[in-house]
Write a structure and sequence with these properties.
It comes from Penicillium canescens. The chain has 2 domains: 129 residues, Oxidoreductase, molybdopterin-binding domain (Sulfite Oxidase, Chain A, domain 2); 106 residues, Immunoglobulin-like (Sandwich). 15% of the residues lie in helices and 30% in strands. The protein is built from 7 helices and 17 strands. A hairpin with a 2-residue loop joins strand 2 and strand 3. The longest helix is centred in the first third of the chain and has 7 residues. It is globular. The model has no long low-confidence stretch (mean pLDDT 94).
């Protein structure tokens, strides 16, 4: 898994210079990529963009280099903790509005309608698609076991007394993963793993990196993957038929 360090101004600073009206509630973004149903666009709430803890920014560099074309060159939005569809690439417009974006892709993509709404109901009544309560913004909690790998074999004759199971977890929305638990008996009991927060290494860094000032020391938000590990006795693995992980 990889993450990146982006360089650029905070979106809030750009918006503040425009002196938004009191009626402004959303930031609509439009990219230069023209798709079958028009240019790609979406929106986020204005108060999110103005919240420094959310870290929403306009990036022109990635890991110290100018953005490459496939990453949104020359300018892109970065909306940490939310689905990728909110981080508009090839950004050409920011529009402050009193309602969510009416862009075709904001309305028809990245939504989860209530389970009682059938395909026929959603086709007949478009209000289901324009209700912003059903738009997906923050990513959901996600946890994965990476080791043991798929079809990995452990030679009991040469293995040590323990095996280190590893994986990653993510909470979305800038929330910090507080625990990751592992089960070897189909959820009857759980074991607490160790967690490494790679992002914390940057919180302790003072100075510039990749051409920009690292300003994470004061922020508690967590936008990067955390990595978990657990030492498991090989005898316990031998008696188990599956590893379950939850965060």
């Amino acid at each position: 898994l990889s993450t990146a360090l982006f360089t650029g101004p905070m979106m809030a600073d750009v918006i503040r210079s425009a002196k938004p009206l009191r009626s402004a509630k959303y930031v609509c973004m439009e990219g230069a990529d023209k798709l079958p149903n028009g240019f790609y666009g979406t929106s986020v709430k204005l108060n999110w963009a103005m919240d420094p803890n959310r870290g929403i920014m306009l990036a022109h560099k990635m890991n110290g280099e100018d953005l490459r074309p496939d990453h949104g060159r020359p300018l892109r939005a970065v909306v940490p903790g939310q689905i990728g569809g909110r981080s508009v690439k090839w950004l050409k417009k920011l529009i402050l509005t009193d309602a969510p974006s009416d862009n075709w892709y904001h309305i028809n993509d990245n939504r989860v309608l209530p389970t009682m709404v059938s395909p026929e109901m959603s086709a007949q009544d478009r209000k289901w698609w324009t209700d912003d309560r059903y738009a997906i913004y923050d990513l959901n909690v996600n946890s994965v076991a990476a080791y043991p790998q798929h079809e990995e074999e452990l030679d009991l004759a040469t293995a040590g007394p323990t095996y280190t199971a590893k994986g990653y977890a993510y909470a979305g929305g800038g929330r910090r993963i507080t625990r990751v638990e592992i089960s070897l008996d189909s959820g009857k009991s759980w074991r607490l793993s160790e967690i490494e927060y790679a992002e914390d290494k940057y919180r302790n860094f003072e100075g510039n990196l990749f051409g920009g000032k690292v300003d994470m020391w004061w922020r508690e938000s967590s936008f990067c993957w955390s990595f978990w590990s657990l030492e498991i006795p090989v005898s316990d693995l031998e008696a188990s038929d599956a590893i379950l992980v939850r965060a």
